[in-house]
Design brief:
This protein is of the alpha/beta class. It is built from 9 helices and 13 strands. It is globular.
Amino acid sequence: MEKKQSCKVAVVQASSKLFDTEATVNKTIELIEETSKEQVDLILFPEALIGGYPRGLHFDTYVGIRTDSGRSDFYRYASSAVEIPGKETDLISEAVKKAGAYVVLGVIEKEQHFHGASLYCTAIIFGPDGKILAKHRKLKPTGSERLIWAEGDGSTLPVIETPFGRIGVLICWENYMPLARAAMYGKGVDLYLAPTADARDGWFASMQHIALEGRCFVLSCNQYVTKDDYPEDVINRQIFSELEDELCRGGSCIVSPLGSFIEKPFIGEEKIIISELDLTQITKSRFDFDVVGHYARNDVFSLTVNEKKQQAVVYLQDESEEKTLNMNVIKEVVKNNS
């Protein structure tokens, strides 16, 4: 694949309509159409855009206590999640195909044809032909997110080759996991994508650090959320009377491989941030620091990444498969004892 020397990227700072997946999908399609007018190569959306980031909700959960009303809130939230692929992603795929750009979109995912309650905070990577190339499930939900999201595994840690370099994505506080970042660097990520729900000043410093550490472009994207993005029955709850109208201030930004802001954190409203990136900066920046190249010490440090899909139940389809499995176990035992 011939490499381009530059690319045009867009970071879309926008909000969900909580508990209204149809409206949020329609809004996302409109934003893709609007952004595509700028002839961009890559569009990044925030964490949990489709399905929503339920900021301020606690689902009536306390240590040792759950309530019927909390379960009802969770049912409502789970009903807003989407399947991959599913009718919502099919609609978005059509918009992506018309745009002709790579699109990375944060969603709340539920398993296909499964009536369980395990939801995942997921980033979908669409190719310019509209096809889903890969997805990444958040490895470790943070704090109270663990009440509503399950953990992803190493089977969804993709880095995708594009004409303008390799793109990879980690979601929100996964970016504080040094080994997760190392896994991305090991796959040669050039455009490091960090959709998030964190709008604090410390986050911006982290984005600069990651750009310097990986010698890659970092694109961070957050929602701008106000109470108007929530249904009335949620806004009227006691906890929301004590919150400011602005629930998330945004802060989307783009950082160069040497850690300087190309686009400073944007605060206070929705916006499509567009920038032209000089891709020669990647190699130039790695001249004196290549984190998995000449600056690595493979004789001292190493990282093993388990990319096998983890399953609670494994079904052996036939006797020959069972024999193969048993032989592999025997070989491993012999190997460990030799």
